[in-house]
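Appendix B, record 7
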Amino acid sequence: MTKLSIKITDNEVAKTLSELGGFVPESLEEIGPSIVDLIQLGFDASEDPYGNTWDAVIRGGKPLRDTSTLMNSFNAQVAGDSVAIGSNLTVGDGHNLASIHQDGATIRAKAGGLLRFMIGDRFVTVEQVKIPARPIIPEEENWPDTWREEVNEIILNHILK
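Structure tokens (predicted):
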């Protein structure tokens, strides 16, 4: 899959599972796509999972939305009793694009060269570019309430079936 993935290790979700009598593996088939939907809602709103607005981009427009390539690259894979959600989209040097935006990065020109790109209708030449962190997925053990409630509801519905 990818270097950028999440595991459901949230303490509140684990507590709910324990209180309800255990995990229903079939719920993973629904949890994965639901989390991918939550990720895509974050792209639409230009917000991290906690509702914080992503830093603006100097070219204007919505961050990470020139195309929907990154947003649409997220997928879910069920394996046994877990589901992995991530993106396998990479940039030229093999780095995971979602990870670059999740954590932020400094992009430097190779071998003392310069980076050249367009902003609007003009070319810009620089030695490096700092990409601010624009978190796409929550921290493993600090899920926002909306994400936790979504997963808990899916699990509860499967247990009640």
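Remarks on this record: The mean pLDDT is 83. Residues 28-45 form the longest helix (18 residues).
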